[in-house]
Write a structure and sequence with these properties.
Rossmann fold; binds uridine-5'-diphosphate; 8 strands; globular; teichoic acid biosynthesis; EC 2.4.1.187; two-stranded antiparallel ribbon; about 45% helix; alpha/beta; N-acetylglucosaminyldiphosphoundecaprenol N-acetyl-beta-D-mannosaminyltransferase; cell wall biogenesis/degradation
Length: about 190
Amino acid sequence: HEKLNVVGIPIDNLKREKFLNLVYQELEQKQKNIFIVTANPEIIMNAKKSSSYREALLQADFIIPDGTGIIKASNILGHPLQEKITGYDLVHTFLSYASENRKSVYFYGAKEGIAVEAITKAKELYPNLQVAGTKNGYAGLGKEVAEEIASAKPDFVFVGLGAPLQEKWIASYRHLFPHSVLMGVGGSFDVLSG
Ligand code: UDP
């Protein structure tokens, strides 16, 4: 499918349904993991400043336009993106899919206690949700934590460490998650828990 280059970052130009079908297909086939970035203007500007962050982003399988800023930029560039897919909406869409398809989820990030509260809310909304685990985002960001999360074999790994930490973390440790969908979710656990 087509990609639009926004300051050096290739944004996928996909309709929401098409994107979701591609992700679910990969998830069911269990051939590889899937790294999704929801790119907002903050992420794009970070990538422009930092080459290590840009390299992490370029490892993503999908870079989805999050927010009207990116859509406006694409219009100005004369190459309109088809649809905005916000990160927080996507979290709910994946939680709903997980609940209906017996897929497990892991919430990693935010302050002590927040991910647990967010999971409680998620289970109220999506009763059949299988929880692989939770971990706060201030207990070290290294290999040990990554291995602990991987040992729970989650189908969806939501990483709420904020940009640029979350994308760098996923790029570094995705190899420990051979069949998972991994996605940076910013402050989504704070929103969901509150
Ligand atoms: N965070 C974390 N560990 C850190 C730094 C941040 O878990 O070392 C969490 C923070 O508690 C918050 C999220 O990352 O839940 C970042 O939220 P923010 O609103 O800044 O992210 P955005 O949605 O703007 O990307």
